[in-house]
Design brief:
Layout (H helix, E strand, L loop, with lengths): L2 E2 L15 H6 L1 E7 L12 E9 L7 E2 L12 E10 L2 E9 L7 E5 L6 E4 L6 E5 L6 E5 L3 E9 L6 E7 L4 E3 L9 E4 L2 E2 L6 E3 L4 E7 H11 L1 E8 L2 E8 L4 E6 L2 E7 L6
Parallel strand pairs: 1-16, 2-11
Antiparallel strand pairs: 2-12, 3-11, 3-18, 4-8, 5-6, 6-7, 7-8, 9-10, 12-17, 13-16, 14-15, 14-17, 18-19, 19-20, 20-21
Length: 264
């Protein structure tokens, strides 16, 4: 896998440890978000954002926006899942036709449209040294590190322009389906096809339509955003198991929706 080496060396790089406690608990990196779907304000107004990232790139359920009103012939309800996002409870209904490799259909709160999906069955695991010389430990990718962020609040509700200083080495997902995004690594264009290794401290900029950019950021491991804007506290959280995103305003649900994958 090709390696894109960072020229951006940050002060936290030397403190990045191999022990599990350091890896999970450290406050690493910076993320500069110039547009979020609910941040508004005057040009130049800066909002502090706390970011939660999974420990590694992770598989995410891929959901198509081609919704249908009823299950196709041969499909029936095969699973109901309880989903908790931002301490709010949701229910997911999954429809199958009995063939394990066929497309499934998912339905948020078991009502409304059903969407074709390739469902993520289980979280990935990360091999990491435990610092004792005893070997490798398995750590769930669902465990998180925290990063601090800043947001320029001169925004629209449809556009995202985020520069993420990566807290660890990450694999940049193939971007061939994300033609609507501009993606730069340390100011250089990222190749349009293939996966690439990015070193710790790489400054990755993602610019484009909000949901498309949010989907790509989620593949990189972004799971939560917390910030204050317009006199309110906002919380954005993404569940990779069913690619559901919820947005809270002052602890009340502002919006919850599927984060659709781009068409291939």
């Amino acid at each position: 896998m090709p390696m894109l080496t960072s020229s951006f060396v940050t002060s936290f790089a030397s403190s990045f440890g191999t022990r599990r406690g350091l890896l999970v608990g450290a406050v690493l990196g910076s993320l500069f978000v110039t547009t979020l779907p609910v941040i508004t304000g005057c040009a130049g107004f800066v909002v502090a954002v706390e970011v939660g990232m999974s420990l590694c790139n992770d598989l995410m359920t891929q959901i198509s926006a081609a919704g249908i009103s009823a299950p196709p012939t041969g499909y029936q309800l095969c699973k109901e899942d309880d989903l908790e996002l931002a301490n709010k409870r949701y229910k997911l209904c999954v429809y199958c036709n009995g063939e394990p490799d066929d497309v499934r259909y998912v339905q948020l709160n078991c009502e409304g449209s059903l969407y074709p999906a390739v469902v993520r069955e289980s979280p990935m695991m990360l091999d990491t040294a435990d610092g004792s010389g005893a070997g490798l430990n398995k750590i769930s990718c669902d465990e998180r590190v925290k990063a601090f962020a800043y947001s320029n609040a001169s925004t629209t509700e449809t556009h995202l322009d985020a520069s993420i200083v990566l807290p660890d080495r990450r694999t940049l997902p193939d971007r061939s389906a994300y033609a609507g995004l501009t993606i730069l690594a340390d100011g250089q264009d990222v190749p349009t096809e293939g996966e690439f290794e990015l070193d710790v401290g790489t400054e990755l900029r993602i610019t484009g339509p909000f949901d498309l950019a949010a989907h790509y950021a989620a593949l990189l491991g972004v799971r939560t955003l917390d910030y204050k804007a317009d006199g309110a506290k906002w919380h954005v959280e993404i569940d990779p198991n069913y690619a559901v995103m919820t947005i809270l305003r002052n602890h009340d649900v502002h919006d919850t929706r599927f984060l659709f994958a781009p068409p291939h």
